[in-house]
Q: What sequence folds into this?
């Protein structure tokens, strides 16, 4: 389905969910409200045929944190569509879509670990890449790497 | 005339230490030890691929006696730390080192284990050098070091073993130190 | 701040016979886990009831580095992601940076060199995958044969860019150094040498009875599960889906070359089992050889890097997402630039991250030894899982 058709299908099924649409052919993207994301995800997978979650990118935009879901249909060969969900920095909560695309399980754990976005409803939201007792979310712009970790000096330059 | 066994002084500075009998035994034991240094498979990252290439037929570490790579630390002599050690992996490295029986040697292979490598400045999760965790005998720099460099590191370990003494139970003077900062 | 860490898989359903269950820890140091990968397995004797994978033991902060060093310096960190296909990683990142520039043309010679290097790297990576897979199953000899041929490719790369591993060669704008006639002659020699050798691996391993019985009908990956998990590359093609970015969404100059896409057919067992994934890799090596031969025959003279991207790279403000078909699947980079010489955000979409996440699903009910066969057939590299 073309990005325009996907946009129309989303608007029809969930009025008010789509906040913006950029039909740029190199990077088509749709901005979706966090509260409507779970339902919109199901529509994207079932009605629009986007059965393949390529990537979940988490970005620190300053006042907001963004999760960019890159979606594609496995049998098609066009540029993938990117769905953006923005949440405020103080309370970054996005509903989980691990039951829609199975791969979102680990991607959401990584976004929680590195950026600190909380995915509501995830069955096991624990750190996946950093050590279990690591503190802080490293990919945030204001992150300071710890000076020591369990007594071993960490910042040496 | 050698003294009886009860009278031999086992201290390092005893005048009986370097008598001819013990020196030959030293040489024999050191030769057998250094000709069969069995490494432990401890490949973590890219350097592991060069370690595998050293074990393959082109560079063939087996001709120096180090062919059998033991997976278990209980049977290994040499721990070649090949690859970046992260903070999550560090407790496991320490545990494996503790499980190795004496005499044990550690080779830090690759820039990441020497000092943190390319990750030294911004790597928050990278241990900046494995000598912050376990004492290292030989450092082999490179990213990754060529198989010839790894073999050179093995020869340096073997040279260290040449200088050891059978009566010296604790490898005094030859045991490396932990980096303390 | 974090939920308490759990590493015990879900409890097994009760049955009439109360047998002993055991929690077995495999890794992170293990001869067969292909890097620092840890699986906690709940077993009933030899049968695996459930398993939980733990990754992150090689987290080397790649994305933070890309936000701290310049674009050109980030290329060397991309090498170390999937350290077996460094050329492919460099290519993906370079293309993502180049996409930020409007109307950028890469010279023809550079494109040909990129394709040759990427495909030779694919052959080297598959050789290692096959060799270590045989070693996991218990056959030591194919490992030595594969490394013998890998050394030839590595010496070609060494003459091209000075490194045997972690090449840092394909850069935004083209490639770092030019190749001369002696290197092209060496590549042509290798093509003539390798074709009969690929048949050797087939004879050694593919029809070996023990190998077939260890890998056929083991770790069957159904197509819809693979799509839901975002699996790509030989692991997806082994399940019968003919998807390859080089043919479906051609990048660089791949649309000029003729090659086939091997898929699994369930020839020795079920469609999507370990044997199918293994055979896809064996056949892909010959297809890559065809591409190299065609590229070497067509390579034109000319510049090896673009004039526009010389000096310090300051891509215009924007975002780009580019994927390439690497040996393990689709490697993608999402690059966000603020117009400065340091990226604002770089996200790496690693194929092995997706491929290994389905391990607990496809290993239920198999034996512990089959677990080793499944992990080997998925062909993961922890450098790109943990980034």
A:
């Amino acid at each position: 389905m073309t990005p325009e058709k996907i946009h129309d299908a989303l608007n029809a099924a969930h009025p008010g969910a789509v906040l913006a649409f950029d039909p740029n052919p190199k990077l088509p993207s749709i901005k979706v409200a966090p509260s409507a994301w779970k339902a919109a995800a199901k529509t994207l997978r079932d009605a629009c045929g986007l059965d393949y979650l390529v990537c979940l990118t988490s970005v620190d935009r300053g006042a907001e944190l963004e999760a960019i879901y890159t979606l594609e249909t496995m049998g098609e060969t066009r540029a993938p569509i990117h769905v953006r969900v923005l949440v405020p920095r103080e309370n970054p909560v996005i509903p989980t879509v691990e039951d829609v695309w199975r791969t979102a399980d680990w991607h959401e754990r990584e976004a929680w670990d590195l950026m600190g976005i909380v995915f509501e409803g995830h069955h096991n939201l624990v750190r996946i890449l950093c050590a279990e007792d690591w503190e802080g979310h490293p990919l945030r712009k204001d992150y300071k790497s710890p000076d020591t970790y369990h007594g071993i000096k960490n910042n040496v330059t | 005339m050698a003294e009886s066994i009860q009278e031999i002084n086992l201290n390092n500075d005893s005048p009986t230490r370097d008598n001819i009998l013990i020196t030959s035994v030293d040489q024999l034991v050191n030769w057998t030890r250094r000709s069969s240094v069995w490494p432990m498979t401890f490949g973590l990252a890219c350097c592991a691929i060069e370690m595998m290439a050293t074990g393959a037929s082109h560079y063939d570490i087996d001709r120096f006696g180090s062919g059998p790579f033991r997976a278990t630390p209980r049977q290994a002599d040499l721990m070649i730390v090949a690859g970046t050690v992260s903070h999550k992996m560090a407790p496991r490295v320490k545990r494996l080192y503790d499980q190795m029986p004496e005499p044990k040697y550690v080779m830090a292979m690759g820039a990441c284990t020497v000092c943190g490598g390319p990750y030294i400045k911004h790597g928050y999760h990278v241990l900046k050098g494995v000598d912050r965790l376990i004492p290292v005998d030989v450092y082999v720099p490179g990213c990754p070091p060529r198989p010839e460099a790894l073999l050179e590191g093995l020869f340096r370990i073997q040279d260290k073993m040449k200088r050891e003494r059978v009566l010296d139970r604790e490898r005094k003077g030859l045991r490396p130190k932990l980096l303390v900062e | 701040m974090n939920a308490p860490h759990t590493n015990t898989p879900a409890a097994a359903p009760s049955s009439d016979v109360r047998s002993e269950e055991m929690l077995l820890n495999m890794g992170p140091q293990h001869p067969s886990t292909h890097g620092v990968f840890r699986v906690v397995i709940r077993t009933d004797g030899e049968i695996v009831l459930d398993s939980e994978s733990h990754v992150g033991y090689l987290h080397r902060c790649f994305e933070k580095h890309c936000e701290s060093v310049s674009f050109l310096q980030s290329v060397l960190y991309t090498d170390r992601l999937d350290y077996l296909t460094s050329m492919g990683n460099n290519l993906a990142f370079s293309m993502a940076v180049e996409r930020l520039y409007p109307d950028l043309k890469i010279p023809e010679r550079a494109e040909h060199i990129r394709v040759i290097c990427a495909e030779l790297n694919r052959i080297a990576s598959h050789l290692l995958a096959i060799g270590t897979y045989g070693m996991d199953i218990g056959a030591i000899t194919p490992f030595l044969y594969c490394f013998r041929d890998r050394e030839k490719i590595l010496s070609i790369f060494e003459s091209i860019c000075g490194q045997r591993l972690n090449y840092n060669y394909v850069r935004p704008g083209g490639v770092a150094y030019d190749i001369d006639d002696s290197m092209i002659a060496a590549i042509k020699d290798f093509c003539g040498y390798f074709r009969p050798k690929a048949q050797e691996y087939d004879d050694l391993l593919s029809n070996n009875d023990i190998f077939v019985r260890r890998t056929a009908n083991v770790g069957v990956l159904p197509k819809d599960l693979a799509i839901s998990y975002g699996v790509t590359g030989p692991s997806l093609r082994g399940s019968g889906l003919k998807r390859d970015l080089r043919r479906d969404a051609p990048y660089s100059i791949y649309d000029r070359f003729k090659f086939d896409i091997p898929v699994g057919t369930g020839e020795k067992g079920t469609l999507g089992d370990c044997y199918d994934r293994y055979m896809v890799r064996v056949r892909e090596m010959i297809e890559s050889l065809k591409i190299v031969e065609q590229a070497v025959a067509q390579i034109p003279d000319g510049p090896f890097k673009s004039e526009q991207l010389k000096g310090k790279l300051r891509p215009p403000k924007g975002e780009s997402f580019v994927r390439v078909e690497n040996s393990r699947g689709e490697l993608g980079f999402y690059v966000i630039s603020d117009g400065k010489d340091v990226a604002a955000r770089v996200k790496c979409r690693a194929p092995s991250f997706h491929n290994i996440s389905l391990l607990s699903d496809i290993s239920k009910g198999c034996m512990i030894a089959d677990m080793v066969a499944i992990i080997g057939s998925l062909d993961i590299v922890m450098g790109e899982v943990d980034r």
